């Protein structure tokens, strides 16, 4: 089912895109848990991360790794927190959140 993320992929609604390939897109979360919080998504519509086919799933994580390395350069941090939540938007996605101290994250 199309979600708000489909509109971001098509450019119908704006997002701050940080990386894009034919199959994947990374953009800043509109309501970040910390500065530099990025969402990594497949362009193909699949509701839930673990319903993605194996090849696309592996590609998504490799893309997320490359994006995480880029985030670390732009937002110097100790590490990148990784989360699969999926409470709000039914389009598969991975959260990447720069972390320095626990207090940085605004849960
Ligand atoms: P989840 O589905 O994993 O609980 O969270 C979805 C995430 O998508 C949330 O962190 C939320 O802030 C983000 N989000 C929801 N709508 C938009 C939007 O229109 N643009 C952007 N950039 N992020 C969004």
Quickly list its features.
single chain; 107 residues; alpha+beta; five-stranded antiparallel sheet; catalytic activity
- Report strand %: 15-25%
Radius of gyration: 13 Å
Query: What is the total tally of β strands?
Result: 5
Structural class: alpha+beta
Strand order in the sheet with the most strands:
1-2-3-5-4
Report the mean per-residue pLDDT as an integer: 94
What is the string of helix and strand elements? HEEEHEE
The helicity comes to: 25-40%
Domain HIT: 4-107
Protein name: HIT family protein
GO molecular function, one term: catalytic activity
Active site: 93 (tele-amp-histidine intermediate)
Description:
This protein is of the alpha+beta class. The chain is 26% helix and 23% strand. The chain contains two helices and five strands, in the order αβββαββ. A five-stranded antiparallel β-sheet has the order 1-2-3-5-4, covered by helices on one side. The longest helix is centred in the middle third of the chain and has 21 residues, at 54-74. The radius of gyration is 13 Å and the shape is globular. It starts with a helix and ends in an 8-residue tail after the last strand. Bound molecules: guanosine-5'-monophosphate. Guanosine-5'-monophosphate (5GP) binds next to strand 2. Guanosine-5'-monophosphate binds at residues 4, 15, 27-31, 39, 85-89. A motif (Histidine triad motif) lies at residues 91-95. The active site is at residue 93. It comes from Parapedobacter pyrenivorans.
């Amino acid at each position: 089912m199309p979600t708000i993320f489909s509109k971001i992929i098509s450019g119908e609604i704006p997002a701050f895109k940080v990386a894009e390939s034919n199959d994947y897109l990374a953009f800043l979360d509109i309501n970040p848990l910390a500065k530099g919080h990025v969402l990594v998504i497949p362009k193909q519509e699949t509701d839930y991360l673990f319903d993605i086919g194996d090849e696309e799933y592996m590609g998504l994580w490799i893309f997320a790794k490359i994006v995480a390395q880029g985030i670390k350069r732009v937002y110097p941090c100790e590490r990148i927190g990784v989360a699969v939540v999926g409470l709000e938007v039914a389009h598969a996605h991975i959260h990447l959140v720069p972390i320095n101290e626990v207090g940085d994250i605004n849960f």
